[in-house]
Amino acid sequence: MATILVVEDSITEAQFICNSLREVGLNTITVNTAEAAKVIVSQKKIDAILLDVVLPGESGFGFCRKLKSEDKTSHIPIIICSSKNGKIDQTWGLKQGASAYLTKPLDREELLQTVQRFIQS
Question: 29 pairs with which residues across the strands?
Answer without folding.
Answer: 5
